[in-house]
Each structure stands twice: as C-alpha cells, then as structure tokens.
C-alpha cells in the first residue's frame, strides 16, 4: 500500500483547513463561524469518503493479487500431482512387466523339467523293452511339448502386441470405471 495515494487528499484537506482558518480569523461574526464549521464538516466527510474509496480499491487489488497467487500455486500443485501420478503409473507398469516375465520364466523352467522327466521315463521304458509303453510315453511327451511351444509362441506374440500398444508414458486403460480419464502421453499437449 503506497502512502502517496493518500497524499493529494491530505494536501486538499490541509489547504481547505487553512482557508477555513483564514476565513474564520477575518470574520468576527458568529453567523459566519457556524457556516465555516458546516463547511469544515462537509470537507471532512468528503475526505473520509475519498480515503474509504482509496482503501477499498487497495483492498480489492490486494485480494486480486492473493487470488492470482493462490491460483498459480494451485496450478503448480495440480501439475506436480499429475507428474507424480504418471511416474507412479510408469513404475507400476514396469513392475508388472518384470513380475510377469519372472512368472513366465519360472513356469517355463517347471514345464521343461517335467517334460525332460517324462522323456526320460519314456527312454527308460524303451530301454527295459516295454516298447509300446515307451513309444506311447515319448509320443505323449512330444505332443505335450509341441502344444506347449505353440501356446508359448501365441502368448509371446500377444504379449509383444500388448507391450507395443502400452509403452511407458502412455496411460494404462482402466476397465471398469466409466468416469476415469486417461493421462496424455509425454509427446502430446
């Protein structure tokens, strides 16, 4: 708040007071002093209204400046929250992909060991001359292995397509809530 805004009103008030004092000294009559007193009250009332209007404008300017500052701070907080949300989603996506890979590798190891054991049993049965059981076991093992390889290929192709569609920086789609909005990718504005 600048005191210079009130300076013209103070100068006008002092000039009017000086003029009234000079007029009161030149006039000795009581009638003129009552008129001069009424003029002084009117001048004081006008100055009070003038200063009140100035104060109101200063208050409104300060309030507008505070609202602007709060709006900028709110915008900074919203942007920061969006950035944090996006980074959390990217981290979650990375963690899910890593856990899925780990689970698939464990499953592949278990299935490989089981198939190797089954092939070993088939070879053992052949070696001890149970040819029909050995051939049956080996052909079942081959069929299982072929089915597993085909399914693993299909899953790999599907997973590559999903990963290509769902790159980091792109919002994961929520299936279920209709009101959810997707975040824009890093390249879009």
Describe this structure in words.
With 189 residues, the protein is mostly helical. It has one domain. Helix content is 81%, strand content 0%. It is built from 3 helices and no strands. Helix 1 runs antiparallel to helix 2. It starts with 6 loop residues before the first helix and ends in a 24-residue tail after the last helix. The C terminus is likely disordered.
Helix-strand makeup class? mainly alpha
Q: How many H/I helices?
A: 3
DSSP summary, beta strand count: 0
* Fraction of residues in β-strands: under 5%
**Overall radius of gyration:** 45 Å
> What distance separates the N and C termini?
40 Å
Major sheet summary line: none
Oligomer category: single chain
SSE pattern, N- to C-terminal: HHH
Q: Please bin the fraction of helical residues.
A: over 70%
Q: What would the average pLDDT be, to the nearest integer? A: 79
Query: What's the number of structural domains?
Result: 1
What coarse outline follows from CA principal-axis ratios?
rod-shaped
Uncertain segments: 170-189
